[in-house]
Amino acid sequence: MMIEKIYRDLPTIETERLLLRKITPADTAAMFSYASNEEVAKYVTWDVHKSISDTEKFINFVLNQYENEKIAPWGIEDKESGSFIGTIDFVAWNTNHRSGEIGYVIAPEHWGKGITTEAARAIIKFGFEEMELVRIQARCLVENIASQRVMEKAGMTYEGTNRKCVFIKGQHQDLKMYAILKEEFDLCY
C-alpha cells in the first residue's frame, strides 16, 4: 500500500459519536484552546502553544502534508456539537514492514468519556483494513496513565518500556510501548 493512496484525499471516518476528518483553518481557535493548556501538553512530545501563531503554524504544516500526500492527522469532531476536540493520526507508517504507530491528543473537557478510545479503535480498524498493516503500536510517557488505559481499551498489549528513548522537554524520557497485531484485531473487533 502506498502512503500517497491513503493521504491523497484523507478519508473521513465516522464512529458512533465522532467524525475523524481533515483539519482546516477553522479549527485554529479550538486547537489553540487545548494546545495552550499546560496539563494537555504535559505528556506529549510537543511544547505548549504559547500563542495562536503556534497553532496556525501547526495547522499550516498539516495542510502542507495533505497537499503533498504525506502522513497527516485527522481532526476529531464531536458529531453532536460539531466541535473540533482533538487530533489522532499515524505518526509513523513503515510500508516495507507494514507497521504503523498512532498518536492522539484530546481537549481536557472530553477526557474520561471513552472518546479517545473510540477514535483509536477507528483508526486501528482503518490501519488494518485499508492500509494493510500487520502491526500497530502506540507509545506514551510512563507517567501518562490515561493514555495507557486508552491503548489497553483499544485492544493493545503492553510490550515493555523503552528506557530513555526520546529527548523531549529538556530530558531523556522513558516510553511505554503497546501494540496490536492484525490477528489480534480480527479476534477482538
What does it look like?
The protein is of the alpha+beta class and 189 residues long. The protein has one domain: Gcn5-related N-acetyltransferase (GNAT) (Aminopeptidase). It has 7 helices and 8 strands; from the N terminus they run αββαααβββαβαββα. Helix 2 packs across helix 4 (52-67). The two termini are 22 Å apart. The mean pLDDT is 94.
How much of the sequence is in beta strands?
Answer: 25-35%
CATH H-level superfamily title: Gcn5-related N-acetyltransferase (GNAT)
Helix content: 25-40%
How would you describe the shape?
globular
CATH architecture: 3-Layer(aba) Sandwich
Low-confidence stretches: none
Strand order, main sheet: write it out.
1-2-3-4-5-6-8-7
Judged by helices, strands and strand pairing, the structural class is: alpha+beta
Give the integer mean of the pLDDT values: 94
* Number of DSSP E strands: 8
Largest sheet: 8 strands, mixed
- Using the coordinates above, name the CATH class: Alpha Beta
CATH topology: Aminopeptidase
Number of discrete domains: 1
Give helix and strand order, one letter per element, not per position.
Answer: HEEHHHEEEHEHEEH
Instruction: Report the C-alpha radius of gyration, rounded.
Output: 16 Å
The tally of helices reads 7
